[in-house]
Amino acid sequence: MELTKYKITSDTFEGYFMVVYKGSHFKSVSNEVESSLNDKQVNFILNHITDDPKLLKGTIEHHSKSKLKVEPVTDQEPDQDPEGAPARDKIGIFCAFYEKYTTVKYKTGAAEAGKMKALGVTLDELEIILKAYFESDEWYLKPKSISNFIKKYNEVRTIAYARPTNKPKRNYPLPYDHSFFLTLDTNGQREYWSILKANGYVSKYTAGRGTIWVKQNELM
Question: What is this structure's pTM?
Fold first, then answer.
């Protein structure tokens, strides 16, 4: 069944919530907000996500008094290049990294060129993110390819911009433990989200428990 996606944005925070529908029913939601939101703000958004995609925009914008905006997104937006970086330059940087780390020249086709063209990123930022991508040994970032890089872009970006810390690392349980999640403060929950995403989990809204996290292949 066809997937449709919607972004929930606001002038009061950076980033967005991505809501995914499969056919005519809700499938999953992911929190891609860069700034911190408190529990009340997050729950407000989650509690107003509708099962029917046709009702999402009206419901969210009405109940938020237009403070939240809902817009449909597509995976194929050929003109989506807000930073103005030509696709050939982005592909060239990827190929240079690939050859550096594998000693083999990378060959790309039209489909991958289109995916790279649609990626809105500056060349400087792309180099930072690609460095993290090629230096990572995470299983979900293999094999190295443009398709895999685009598919896991948000996870790689999280790795690239993760700030080092001297604090003892919290031991986050896998698989997802909802009871443990409820004991965390907002910052702890955000850290847990990052760990879950990095390990192939996606968020899913349920009527009884709110948002839970499940392996991506368990949603199919």
Answer: 0.40
